[in-house]
Amino acid sequence: MNSRQRPPLMRGRSLSYAPPVLRDADVYNIIPIHNLLTDHPSLRFPEIRAAAAALRATGDLRKPPFVQWNPNNDLMDWLGLLFGFQEDNVSNQREHLVLHLANSQMQLQPPPNIPDALAPQVLRRFRRKLLHNYSTWCSYLSKKSQISLSYRRIGTSTGNAESAELRRELLYVSLYLLVWGESANLRFAPECVCYIFHHMAGELNRVLDNDIDHETGRPFFPSFSGDCAFLKCVVMPIYKTIKAEVDSSRNGKAPHSAWRNYDDINEYFWSRRCFRTLKWPLEPSCNFFATTPKEKRVGKTGFVEQRSFWNVFRSFDKLWVLLILFLQASIIVAWEGREYPWQALESRDAQVKLLTVFITWGGLRVWQSSLDAGTQYSLVTRETMWLGVRMVLKFVVAMTWTVMFAVFYARIWSQNNADGGWSDEANRRIITFLEAVLVFVFPELLALALFVVPWIRNVIEELDWPVLYLLTWWFHTRIYVGRGLREGLVNNFKYTMFWVVVLLSKFAFSYFLQIKPLLAPTKALLELKNAHYRWHEILSSSNKAAVVLLWAPVMLIYFMDLQIWYSIFSSLVGATIGLFSHLGEIRNIEQLRLRFQFFASAMQFSLMPEVQLLNPKMTLVKKLRDAIHRLRLRYGLGQYKKIESSQVETTRFALIWNEIILTFREEDLISDREHELLELPPNCWNIRVIRWPCILLCNELLLALSQAEELADEPDQSLWLKICKNEYGRCAVIEAYDSIKYLLLMIIKVDTNEYTIVRTFFKEIDYYIQSGKLTETYKMVLLPKIHAKLIALIKLLMRPNRDLSEAVNILQALYELSVREFPKIKHSIEELREKGLAAPHPASDSGLLFENAIEFPDSDDAIFCRQLRRLDTILTSKDSMHNVPRNIEARSRISFFSNSLFMNIPRAPEVEKMMAFSVLTPYYDEDVIFGLMNLRSENEDGISTLFYLQKIYEDEWENFLERMRRDGMADDNDLLGKKARELRLWASYRGQTLSRTVRGMMYYYRALKMLSFLDTASEMDIREGPAVGLNGLHSGRLPTTRNLSRATSGINILFKGHEYGSALMKFTYVVACQVYGQHKARGDPRAEDILYLMKKNEALRVAYVDEVHVGRDEVAYYSVLVKYDQQRQQEVEIYRIRLPGPLKLGEGKPENQNHAIIFTRGDAVQTIDMNQDNYFEEALKMRNLLEEFNNFYGIRKPTILGVREKIFTGSVSSLAWFMSAQETSFVTLAQRVLANPLKVRMHYGHPDVFDRFWFLSRGGISKASKVINISEDIFAGFNCTLRGGNVTHHEYIQVGKGRDVGLNQISMFEAKVASGNGEQVLSRDMYRLGHRLDFFRMLSVFYTTIGYYFNTMVVVLTVYTFLWGRLYLALSGVEDAAADNTSNNKALGAILNQQFIVQLGLFTALPMIVENSLEHGFLPAVWDYLTMQLQLASFFYTFSMGTRSHFFGRTILHGGAKYRATGRGFVVQHKSFAENYRLYARSHFVKAIELGVILIVHDNIKLVSRSVMDHGTLCVQPSGLDWLKTVYDFDDFMSWLWYSGGIFTPAEQSWETWWYEEQDHLRTTGLWGKLLEIILDLRFFFFQYGIVYRLHIANGSTSIVVYLLSWIYMIVAVGIHLIISYARDKYAAKQHVYYRLVQLVVILVTVLVVVILLEFTPFEFLDFVTSLMAFIPTGWGILLIAQVLRPFLQTTVVWDTVVALARLYDLMFGVIVMAPVAFLSWLPEFQSMQTRILFNEAFSRGLQISLLLAGKKSN
């Protein structure tokens, strides 16, 4: 049986039992290792053969029993048979290892002496890196590592011993890779993999050492072997345990503390008990496994994620302690009433009062220890008893300190009071207090000392000595991660200084502008006696409640404004670093022109490898030389070296530049004409200078002509110097001269008199130029006439039908001008004949001069036509071509690329010596290529997506049509026929589709092939290549035998073949299409599109999960890798590795990445999302970027290289622009500051490049635990930082990124990120970062992750608190009382307007403006900002703030975070009001209405503030203010509200389903969450309490009875509702008369009661309206509380009433929100204004929006 064959299995979910396609043994992934004699470009490298040969050395190894041993087997096969690894896992890791060792050996400097043998240092370096985590883990657990190597023998012993050691080392590495490759979901638990490897390496050692098995007395063999033995015996038991835990989590809805996630499973292996309990082979009865009942099973390990707001305090307690203690100290000092704090501190009383901060500090420690015990108590078991002891001791010690400080403090004052002043005894007691303080703060002082010398702390933390554990036991639990995280001294100093400045600014501001001004009104309020309260005052009348409400908003601002200060300073620091990084020096094409000649040298310097010397190390001198060279390039210092066309460097530059411009043309960013103007044509027509792009030479020749005319009598030298002042002028003149000379000789027959005359004429001109006598000999004033005739000749030659007689006339005229009139001295015909400038024998002339001498070149010769057009452009262009290229995207990309080459970018190695890398993209079921139907289907306005794209990308659409016509499209109807795929691709490349991402990433492959050619091409290849290839490089319009087609255009035509091998070895692209198998089985068009992408891109691999039915019930899951085989012309399967079960146990995206990561290759892996893009010119810099892994940043080399993103969706709509502006400042300026100086950049998603082998052994590139890791990307950064990695940020390279473009998409994205941050608050990673980093880095982490969201929420809460406080002061009467008291009026007035501090929030827009200024200039940045404000950007940002606050707060309190698929389509659809209501009712509308009610009640009816939060939503969607649509929306909303569907009706159709879904978070929340929710809901009862005392019926009474009686109103209202409902249910259907009767009775009774009240009480009709403001909020409050108590109420009769009332409230809210929108829709012109605001960006690019929205489509 063929070794590749498998028993027949069932594919997909279909019921056919067809066997899978049998794979040919010759199918391979990248290199055919199974057959090294194949003709494959990569096998020319001796390093591949060396690595493969090392693996073949099985020699005298003991052969596995019960198996047929094949003599061709290698070490991998031997391990596979020994331990029962899967055959395809073995094949996959074999290629993985061979490729890596070969690539590493290629990078060796100096190269090894024997290229065909594997260098030991390569293997040793790799083994140390791969197994570093394992070695550290062994050291941590005090276990002896199983890596048994004897280095003493290497180098001193015989060759056999050395090769045996090499083989042993190779076996360890291979074993680890095989274990890792088959561990499936266990890869998320890296120390679990270490445990497995540890025992298997131990068994491997016993086999290698020929041990005897004591039980059998025979040679030792591993405890399991056979087919899939490793999977079944090792992976599956642990996998099933994880799966059982996930199943018990109720899809993540159970509290995190109730089940073990991936981190808990992994952290079980951080203690030595795993060796005691799990044993080896694994003990199935161990209480770790799912075989044990839940209650007896091992619980949470290392950390318990408890849901509570207090986590923000618990994780970052140092920060809160600092803020609280400073606040207390400030109040004490400010209370003294002196102008400056130092004056107040002169008083001994104030000094002693300040000592109370230590009592507070002690109290805060008590609280911290209580929180620790309260959240982590479930970690304490019999095995972890000491943990419980420490919790209790910490609480007791903190309590003791607090009591002791309080006692000592009381003794100071008692002594002072007894002595009547500060006596010696009182001072002695102060000293005693201070001595106690010294002991108390001693640990902090020690930490400070270690902070100053960070390396000592790192060494101590990384030592695994038991004595050190004892010393640090008190301070924190010993854990495997979070050790040795201190940075070097320089970095330490930088981020410390940053935070010192920020904190000083904040504290000065807080003291002088927040705390000090508040004390006067506080004292005034406390002194305000007998204030007349307008209600029943429950508290005593000391106005304390008023004081609390006065301070509350200011305190909230005090605790959050550090975020604003951080924002301000980070913007300034980021801009400064950006300036020093030389960002934005070339901002536009004009600035590039000025530097283009230096740009050519910069490209050579940065992108081309330098000649390697024998000593390749970067010495200080070499670094200095490089820096000086770069400086000279950047500022054009020193003598500029002119690049002439003969030089190899010129041709190299031309090849790269032209390929970049060609990709622009392929992407339809530029037209054919722009392509010609931008390209740098290769040398031909014997032109002596470099042929700069036409856009640089335009107008230069005409300038030179006018100078020649002006300076006609000057000597040659001064004229030439004047022309040469501009390099482009010099080149234009020489190129025009050489071209004309060549052209004239080309069109005149060779063996004619005319040919001789022309040649002689040019020889004479050349002679006078060289002797410097041109102006002496010739009349320069005639040049314009000659110029005009030449232009006429060229125009004639450019015509398709050339007129010979006209050509003869022009040439004769030229002859007359040049030969007869041009010289200053006129010559007779005889003299001309003598010189050879006239026909020799007039008698023999058969006709006029030139009449029979002209031979036109072939009119189909595209190259000739192209040269003519260029010459014509040089001769005739008068404008400066500032608008080439026209496309904004093309301009910005060229500017960024050219600027980046002048930045500090590492030198590039040769492609052979560069690091290999992979790109990994997870894909689920998004669009691959847009379907034709989807593109053409129209919305309700008659607008199709295709039409929308044509209007937004108008110039690109024209370029596309031009390209299609050139490729043979007869008319536009072909676009729907034979060019349909091209049309679909064009549209897809403008959306956020997989095809766009794949095209972008495959530019790496294209770039590497080109760079590989340039690295290895000889001077002859480069010089001669263009003569053949480049003259027709970018072919013309009409294909002929003389014209190279565009299919082979570009540099490909010069390739020799080996470039493909180099590129494939260095780059792989794996797309993890998780459900590709299901797509194929269903015949989904996406499967066909993915196959098309594989067909087009040979380096593309697709990994997917295949489900195969085995037998009746069992399903086997496989991880499969496929590619498109170009020889066989079909998709082939490369590897199929069985998984232990279903892939998705945690979050989907990281699980998808994890299953495919085993198929990636190389030293690095770049994570790319499905909505990204890449650019050819950026791909050229990838090898430079990878060199960063070899540089130290601080005391460590990088493990993640951060890359900047270019947001490409900004032009779609205003909202997309706002979003992209916000994102751009985050992915540039913010990341720049985080990386340097703050050293806390994590991984925020997408284009970052990971050190692959570092992460491979440390848990992978993301975390996957259900719900807690919903923002999976950032946890890779947390994990990296905690494990001692280093993250940098590089801005000389960028990757495209798409963002959401519609309001609903944006809101869902914001909701997802905010919920993810809410979950991060609970996570162990966040807690450990807060406690293991030093104080200042901890501040950086807080304010750039969860702190940002927390403080956003605090800003919203501040607005609430401020308004509620004003409401309290107004309703209670305190405000009036204070206003009457004139002495306090001024102070109180100042403080009541504290909202000015909220307006500081404007500073949060600062990063955006600063980054824009840096990259595009100050004035454009300000203009952009003003435009944004006019387009209501502030509304959008406020709206986003509301979204973030709502979801962040809800997630921390109640959970409920979930992945929200935002969809990445274009927004041309009008969303119905019902849909918007569902999305925003709870997060925005209800809150806005609440604020509106407060404002109405508080006399100032400022309805404007409302509209910010609620009506913004409806104004920023297409046709949001269309009257007809508003009417339809209202009808739709009403039918949704009253729809009475069943239990399975979706929320989109039924209000009731939606209402229940909105309460889901209350079902999963804990007791504390419910209690807090109820407490928050009680605020709605305050309206009733405040307002009933204001009603006339209350008659000025402040008795509590008034309030209690007011509840009758509520009871009556509910009673009426119940009676009507009951009557409707009973009579409405059959006895309608009774129903009407009941209604009549109710109305009559109500009217009667109202009349009685009006007649016999002070009740007025206005009370009726006022009381609505009181009782509607109360009803809402009751409803919210009823929702919390739903488990108790749902089974009772009350629940139906609750549901009915809730429906009425939603109806009321809907009407309130919709009324203003309806009014605006009714007004004329508002719709067109709204459209203009929404689509302004697209307008500026020619979007005919009025046509678009009216649906009057033009043809």
Explain how this protein is built:
The structure is a single chain. With 1755 residues, this protein is mainly alpha-helical. Among the domains are: 41-296, no CATH class; 699-878, no CATH class; 916-924 and 996-1012 and 1057-1190, no CATH class; 1522-1722, no CATH class. The chain has 75 helices and 10 strands. A 10-stranded mixed β-sheet has the order 5-4-3-2-1-6-9-8-10-7, with helices on both faces. The longest helix has 39 residues, at 489-527. The chain is globular and about 135 Å long.
Descriptors:
1755 residues; mainly alpha; 10-stranded mixed beta sheet; 75 helices; disordered C terminus
Average pLDDT across residues?
Answer: 85
* Tally of strands: 10
In this structure, how is the largest beta sheet organized? Answer: 10 strands, mixed
Termini, distance in Å?
64 Å
* Rg result: 40 Å
Number of separate helices: 75
Q: Which strand-content bin applies to the residues?
A: under 5%
Main β-sheet, spatial strand arrangement: 5-4-3-2-1-6-9-8-10-7
Sum up the overall morphology in one term.
Answer: globular
Element layout with pairings:
Elements: H1 46-56, H2 75-83, H3 87-106, H4 120-130, H5 132-140, H6 159-182, H7 190-208, H8 229-247, H9 262-267, H10 273-277, H11 310-315, H12 317-335, H13 341-344, H14 348-354, H15 356-376, H16 385-419, H17 424-452, H18 454-462, H19 466-472, H20 489-527, H21 544-580, H22 589-607, H23 620-635, H24 648-666, H25 672-678, H26 694-697, H27 700-710, H28 716-724, H29 727-747, H30 753-771, H31 774-777, H32 783-798, H33 804-821, H34 829-835, H35 862-876, H36 888-900, E1 917-923, H37 932-936, H38 945-952, H39 954-966, H40 980-988, H41 994-1016, H42 1019-1028, H43 1058-1066, E2 1067-1073, H44 1076-1082, H45 1085-1096, E3 1100-1110, E4 1114-1125, E5 1130-1139, H46 1148-1156, E6 1164-1167, E7 1172-1173, H47 1176-1179, H48 1182-1186, E8 1200-1207, H49 1214-1235, E9 1249-1251, H50 1252-1256, H51 1272-1282, E10 1287-1297, H52 1303-1322, H53 1324-1332, H54 1335-1344, H55 1346-1372, H56 1374-1380, H57 1382-1392, H58 1406-1416, H59 1418-1430, H60 1433-1454, H61 1473-1497, H62 1504-1515, H63 1523-1537, H64 1551-1558, H65 1560-1564, H66 1567-1577, H67 1581-1588, H68 1600-1627, H69 1632-1656, H70 1661-1684, ...
Parallel strand pairs: 1-2, 1-6, 2-3, 8-10
Antiparallel strand pairs: 3-4, 4-5, 6-9, 7-10, 8-9
